[in-house]
Specification:
Helix content is about 75%, strand content about 0%. The protein is an all-alpha fold. Helix 3 crosses helix 4.
Length: about 110
Amino acid sequence: LYPQTPDDKASSLQVEAEEAANTYLPDESEGRRVAFRGIYVVGRREGATIDHCLQAFFLHPDEPNKAIDFLKAFMALRELGFPEPDISVALIQVGHDRDKAIDLLM
């Protein structure tokens, strides 16, 4: 039919985030589900899967900005071809500093 506009895409991503929060975090507080939705939206825009978004959330359930920093660094390192389990460990060891994580991964 008609191509999606940026507003349509943003709206559908918000709906997806709401559904994911309700599905995967039904017992979390509303505040944490709101935080997860923000993480999810940023993560999906970065190319992250639901599993990546959940990992970032559970690393920092009360600090969404730290979760987003982790997720962005994770996706950048993934794009460079590093193995996902190694990326997670390296980022956790260096406080989500992408450049220091690269040094560890080399």
